[in-house]
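Hi P.,

Sorry for the delay on this. The queue was packed all week, but I finally got your sequence through. Input first:
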Amino acid sequence: MNELTKYRVLVVRIVLIFAALCLLISVILPEHRAIAHGLILGSVVSCINVIHMAYKVRLIIEAAVLAAEGKGSRRRAGLGFGFRLATSILAILIPLEFPHYFSELAVLASLVFAHFLLQILGIIFSIKEERMRDELARKEKAKQQQN
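Then the structure:
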């Protein structure tokens, strides 16, 4: 499992847990149901956008490796901005069409949920990796001093 796959799996799990919590809130507090449904819609669309971008990044990496080996074509590849824009616009249009089911502000606020989550996870994993490297270096230094 490479780093992109690890991040993708973790983001999907956290978004699904967040969606389950929002569903639970919508059952417990029916007066806030539209807000909870808006948060679910926005976070799921955000997760789809992150998964799509990870897929496109993987394709670009593979194309770069093939090009470096001289086997690949020089086809221009993008990050799928049009797809991500279309899904976000669709997510914004749904609460405009059905305002009694979805809160517009909740959808707008949660459209960046998975992106922020990805940044936070990257920082956490980076700090964890740095601590493991420091601990390994400290153990190696102690081992050298004993010899």
